[in-house]
Amino acid sequence: MGWYDEQVLPRIINVACGVKSARPLRRRVCTGLVGDVVEIGFGSGHNVPFYPAAVRSVSAVEPSDVGWRLASGRVEKSHVLVRRAGLDGQRLPFADASFDSALSTWTLCTIPDVQAALTELRRVLKPGGVLRFLEHGLAPEQDVKVRRWQYRLEPLQMRVFGGCHLTRPITELLATAGFALTEVDAFYEEGAPKPLGADSLGSALSA
């Protein structure tokens, strides 16, 4: 990682992911989290204010030291115990069946080996544990023009935003990893260009 990725990009993401319009989505995706939670791509902690009372603890997986420092104010104010417990979603440092719930928000687009990360999440979730996800990815099949623009823009998006893909089929990836999808709401994020804001929000169970 170079200076831009280490020092500049986490600050850009902190601002971009902290927009007011994202708060209702964060509140929705955090609904249903219970017990001990693992959150991959914790970033600067924008989900922290929305953890429900049923959450006992959060193990934050976040590679960026700058991102974690930017999260400090939110973590200190949290009613939930939050600790930085890992750096790489592809290799989680936890025992099998350690967590009741998992959370991923706008993270699966960037992890280099996304299938490895999803396999790891299944491994550390208890049987029947829930993964709550809010991700952007490939637009619906019928939106051919949007998809075309996503493929055009993806190389630039990856260069500017630290490897962020626009064309990952989120629900297909979850199913391939062995998760059972129980809820999916696919929509375009308000205020975002369609190629950048094709979101999926929902739940998947660990078998």
UniProtKB/TrEMBL annotation:
GO molecular function: methyltransferase activity
Key words, A-Z: Methyltransferase, Transferase
Name of protein: Class I SAM-dependent methyltransferase
Domain Methyltransferase type: 38-132
Single biological process term from Gene Ontology: methylation
InterPro entries attached to this UniProt entry: Methyltransf_11, SAM-dependent_MTases_sf, Thiol_S-MT
TM stretches of this protein: none
SUPFAM superfamilies per the UniProt record, alphabetical: S-adenosyl-L-methionine-dependent methyltransferases
CDD domains: AdoMet_MTases
Organism per entry: Kitasatospora cinereorecta
